[in-house]
Design brief:
It is built from 13 helices and no strands. The protein is mainly alpha-helical.
Length: about 300
């Protein structure tokens, strides 16, 4: 063994150990804020047009920048896998959230998406991947917190919105698990390829649903769209794909538990929404569930990293 092998390996492990919590913080905070960002952007854009334009702009900029920096383009197989994953994660996953937020508050949408780790746990059975007891306990506690949060009088969804959020949750969970077993583009190119493919699918969804690009868009909607494209798409989605390849599925899916309280708190601070006792209790229980999942992940650090 070369003498330089161990230092390099140790450096990679050390880098990943501080990148994992950084990526988690980005996904927790940024994606939690995007629910309000979507709601603001929807005042000027139809839902599928909004999502298509968001990912097209972010995907083109990111892909062009990567190619200028010398990154290799995806292979044909990688383009296919990125297309399937992008449609599941961003097309149905994000597009249906945009559709639902026309009828429900941003906090309601975030709470519904919190069920995503439960879908992940079910799907892992088909891949013969067993969850640790602490991870199962964290999922159960987190689900109880979601129930408490959803039991408040201000969190009610219409049937159409509930169905859209169910499709979004299931699609995101399946796409996250499926992509872990496929040959995907490397690094940030994976993000760019998925966004480009998803933007095409979302554009078709906009045409089929009869949406039109608006002639007049408020400045607040444009600024919200820019925030969604830069922070929600490029930065946070890159962090999430890094987590998918680095940590156990239960931890990478834990954002779904943290996003609801973040979304509710941001709505309270920036949009004047009120938070009741049940919301606060639900947030506390949700964070306990995330803590259990995190502890299980730290105990398996040598295996996960």
């Amino acid at each position: 063994m070369n003498d330089t092998t161990l230092p390099i390996a140790a450096t990679n492990v050390s880098e990943r150990r501080w990148l994992v919590p950084l990526a988690l913080i980005v996904v927790y905070l940024v994606w939690g804020s995007t629910y309000l960002g979507i709601r603001i952007a929807l005042t000027g854009f139809p839902p599928f047009v909004l999502a298509a334009f968001r990912f097209a702009a972010a995907g083109v900029v990111m892909y062009a920048w990567l190619r200028l920096c010398g990154a290799s383009p995806p292979t044909t197989l990688q383009w296919r896998n990125a297309a399937i994953t992008g449609v599941l994660l961003l097309g149905f996953g994000n597009g249906m959230v945009c559709f639902a937020e026309r009828y429900v508050a941003s906090g309601v949408a975030a709470v519904a998406i919190a069920a995503e780790p439960l879908f992940v746990a079910v799907l892992l059975v088909f891949y013969r991947e067993r969850l640790r007891r602490a991870e199962i306990a964290g999922l159960i506690v987190g689900f109880v917190g979601v129930v408490v949060l959803n039991s408040s009088g201000g969190l009610r969804a219409s049937p159409w919105a509930a169905g859209a959020l169910l499709v979004a949750t299931a699609s995101w969970a399946f796409g996250s698990i499926w992509s872990r077993h496929q040959d995907m583009p490397k690094g940030p190119m994976n993000v760019a390829a998925q966004m480009l493919c998803a933007s095409i699918a979302l554009g078709l969804m906009a045409v089929i649903s009869g949406e039109r690009f608006p002639t007049h868009v408020p400045l607040t909607s444009i600024l919200a769209l820019a925030y969604l494209a830069v922070f929600g798409s490029i930065i946070a989605f890159t962090a999430y794909l890094f987590l998918l390849k680095t940590v156990r599925p239960a931890l990478s899916a834990s954002y779904a538990y943290v996003n609801p309280p973040v979304a509710v708190l941001i709505g309270m601070l920036l949009a004047g929404e009120r938070v009741g006792v049940l919301e606060l209790i639900g947030m506390a229980v949700i964070l306990i569930g995330v803590g259990l999942i995190t502890v299980a992940r730290l105990r398996s650090q040598p295996e996960a990293v």
